Amino acid sequence: MAMETSVDKAALLRGHGVQVTAQRLAVLRAVSERPHSTADDIERVVRAEIGAISRQAAYDALGTLTDKGLLRRIQPASSPARYEDRVGDNHHHLICRTCSRMVDVDCAVGYTPCLTAADDSGYEIDEAEVIYWGRCPECVATTSVSAGD
Q: What is the pLDDT of residues 65-117, one digit of tens each?
């Protein structure tokens, strides 16, 4: 898949009614290249790429891009918010309890069991957010090696 250029990202911003700024373009690139990053991680990447950006400017850009539907904010329990640019589908996440690595998990294909609540209380449900917790293969392997010593 071809990398999206700054021109493509600028057009994406304009198409969503967002003013194009160097900070917003850099934030979009950072999230695209490092999905599931925290705001602090994104701020560091953007600062390394374009130089000075305040923490507030990074948070403002993330907020605007999330509000406009260009980014998705994920807030796992006992964890800082993370951001990704995979929007518009009903996917879920798997998080390692040991190293905090997060990966995408597609929802069941063909039907949407996660959208069928036992009691919908009259709500019209259109999205479900599921977070699976466990240990990633690397952490499981490290634990197995340590236990065998």
A: 999 999 999 999 888 999 999 998 878 899 999 999 999 988 766 566 666 77
Distance set, CA 43 to CA 24, 26, 33, 101, 105 (Å): 11, 9, 13, 19, 26
Q: Where does 1-149 show beta strands of DSSP type E?
A: 37-38, 72-74, 82-84, 92-96, 102-105, 131-134
49-73 confidence digits (pLDDT tens): 998 889 999 999 999 999 999 999 9
Residue 125: alpha-carbon gap to chain centroid: 22
Distance of alpha carbon 93 from alpha carbon 7, whole angstroms: 30
- Report how far residue 52's alpha carbon sits from residue 73's, in angstroms, rounded to the nearest whole number: 24
Start-end ranges of CATH 3.30.1490.190 in the chain? Answer: 89-148
d(CA 36, CA 51): 22
> In the chain, which segments carry CATH 1.10.10.10?
6-74
Q: What is the DSSP letter of 12?
A: H
116 neighbors 79 (Cβ within 8 angstroms): no
